[in-house]
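Subject: Interface between my chains keeps coming out wrong

I've been trying for a while to get a sensible model of this assembly. When I model each chain on its own everything looks fine, but I need the whole thing in one frame so I can look at the contacts. Pasting all components below, labels as-is. Any help appreciated, I'm running out of ideas.
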Amino acid sequence: MPVLVLSTSLVPAIVIFFLAEAQQRTRTLVNIAGALAKLALVAVMLDGVALGVAYETRLGLLPGLDLLLRVDALALLFLTLSAFLWLLTTIYAISYLGQGPHLSRFFGFFSLCVAATTGIALSGTLVTFFIFYELLTLSTWPLVVHQGDARSIAAGRRYLAYTLAGSAVLLLGIVWLESRTGPVEFTVRGSLAGVDAPTLQAVFCLLVAGLGVKTALVPLHGWLPAAMVAPAPVSALLHAVAVVKAGAFGIVRIIYDVYGTTLLHELSLGIPLAAVAAFTVIYGSARALQQDDIKRRLAFSTVSQVSYIVLGASLFGPYSTIGGLAHLVHQGLMKITLFFCAGALAERLHVHKVRELDGIGRTMPWTAAAFTVGALGMIGVPPIAGFVSKWYLGLGGVQAGHVWVVLVLAGSSLLNAGYFLPLIYRAWFVPGAMDRAPGRERPFWLIAPAVITALASLGVGALAGLAMSPLGWATLIVERNYTP
Amino acid sequence: MLPDLLAVGVPWAVASIVLPLAVALAAIALGPHARHLVLPGALLGAVIALAAAAQVLAHGAWHHAVGGWLPPLGIRLRLDGLAASFLVATAVVACGVAGFSRRLFEPSARRETRAGFAFWPLFFVMWAGLNAVFLGADLFNLYVALELLTLTAVAMVALDGKAETLAAAIRYLLFALLGSLAYLLGVALLYARYGALDLGLLRAAAVPDAITLAAGAIMTAGLMAKTAIFPLHGWLPPAHAGAPTPASAMLSALVVKASFYLIARLWFDVLPAAATVETSQLFGALGAGAIVFGSLLALRQEQLKLVIAYSTVAQLGYLFLMFPLTGSAAAPQPWAAAAWTGGMFHALAHAPAKAAMFLAAGLMIKACGDGRLAPLAGIGRDLPIACFAFGLAAVSLMGLPPSGGFTAKYLLLTAALASGQWWWALAILAGGLLAAAYLFRVLNRFLIAPAEAAPRVAVARRDQAIALALAGVSILLGLASLVPYQLLQIGRPAAAVGGLS
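Reply #2:
Try treating it as a single job with all components included. I did that and got this:
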């Protein structure tokens, strides 16, 4: 089963590489078929895992060292998000890129990216995780530099400099740990028992620093704002579906499935990490406030929002963990909405700067409405998804005895409001230039994905009480695996 | 009933040396028609190599006494897991290069070219020489095999007869001959001391005295000159970059490994008792130096083939890290076997990756009509397959997963950290980052959208596909690494586990 899921994006990737530029219809068909097949498989596995079925595949790499793909509840949380958003992003990208050059290359690497993300979600060992994590780095690079102009190449270089250095640090951490314990499998508790505390602390720092690059923890975030020169579907992929999520997901795995909260508590590593995350939350928001370019503003907002996940995980309380995990999905839905909208605005109206947003509510009402939902969700207005995560994070902070977390959340929400409300205000209440006639919201599939994800972020917030909502699923993960 | 073709005693080892020699002789006789022999000959060579590997997997390592005479009178070939895996790696690369060059050296209608006439005999003699080095179990036979390699390699560099490649070839010849002389001197010393040339007899007799150590040092120095390990690497870049593309691939992927292979055989199989902690640390230091300096120099090159050639200098450095990482008998360490296997794995994974890279680069240069990096801008559109092959090979060279290069790096890193020699781990990681820096400098060019489309010479998709297939092998080696790993363990020298000295 895990191999099947992986191949729903790997096989399209390989097929698409061999398609000629002109075979657009076949390419679209392969892409959509892969995405739908994956969604169907995920649905089957959601049902299975909820009932307690375990899916597992092993391939021996070296004696004792396996490539292990395993579906557990946490894996499915990430997998469902990426499968759902992959489908929408593919549809969006097909409309967005239209007849541009190098599309076979683009969609090939795009599918490869998603295959890597799937692998990351399903990884059952540290080394498996690292393999797919690197595959993700490599397959996103051609997407970042897709346009091939000087700015894209510079952004790509910066992206590689950050991520490859990060992976070297991550690899050092993994190998250091495994040279003491042998290959480390997730969810096998107590395998670190024989290792001395200073080594464990140093390894933890290396692992988190390595993963922190993709998570865009300050001061390792520099690549993310630079990478926004990439086409909008790629930004969506970087910010919502794959890259930053892979880092955050990795940190969650390290905290809960490699070390375990008890051990980390003894090593007193939780609070420092929470402090870094909290700083990132505030710093990202503060920087977002200064940005004039819409995509740059969104990029700094991502820096801030992704650290909510890390913050939730590093507080070790059940509620904060639930909040963090739910935010993994919530942030994805809301942020992808915002990037879809920003891309549509740039493509249809050539709007790039904040001040150019005046009056777009009249010209592109659907897009503006979706944008508004996403932005309000980020601020934390109920009943949109962002509110639910913040509520649980705050509750978790109080429960763990860290009241300052609530202050951080409140401060961040204020800043969020500070940088999102002017956008919404301009869109709806400031009259725009005269030449912008309505009827620009076309093609249908460029606009629809944003509306769907906006509705989804409303839905998962309003229906958070259901067992199959992201919050419900996060609760299941915590109850099943991380409750002592 | 069919006879068991893999039984002990079926002389696949001998066949792997005899067949390429026979093809080489036939190629001389056939002259311009030699190219019809090439593919059948190469494929048969691959079958023989695979059969030898299967034989080792089935029955373990064994010695073949040529002509039925046992040493000290007769000479022997030793077929173990290490030798078999190098035979297979050589066959894979050789098949790729043969397929790639088949049309490159077609005689033109008007006149027969020197390159067209000489390439195929040289190629097959080189193949025979490589196999003889991997199988030899006798110091003097190994010398003969090494000389065979040197002469064919130098001739291949000089094949197109341009002034600057002739100069590079002469420099290469100088280094290689001095290296051979040093090696021969060491052999003479050992023979005078122990009266034996067979590796097994020598190991049994060897004691750590001054003469033995001196002989080992002289032989190693000679072999190092041939391997182009830092700081003796000066001859390699002009020779490997100046040679015709198929020759570059053979030289960088295989020929330099042959002399490294002998250094490893010498210390792990013959003289583990004579090694000291200082010598292994010195080997490691040279390796780390090669990694750092080779990479930094690669970063500064403006010619595509020179970047790849300096990358070879750097990649060879990793191989020498296995000496300190196996630890010593005084302080054995649990991951010693990982260090030895990791080093050998690196040599094996580097072969197809580097060959793929040179072949892809050759096609790009042909398409651009220019060997510099700048005109490559936007070539991703014209030669997508070759660019993809280059990229995959680069992944393996950077040691990123999934690839054979990553498996090797994982083993070496684990050994370094488990034995507390973290400084080698830093060298390995720095090497990976530097490799990324110089390779992405090239890869960047592929994806640049140039202002105006440059004129390109058309290149056959089939040739690009060969480069892609070789690169694919190096990637596959990272996923299907279990069988090669197990093969390497068969007949592994005791010192690879217990440490040197």
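Reply #3:
Confirming on my end. The first helix of chain A runs from residue 2 to 17.
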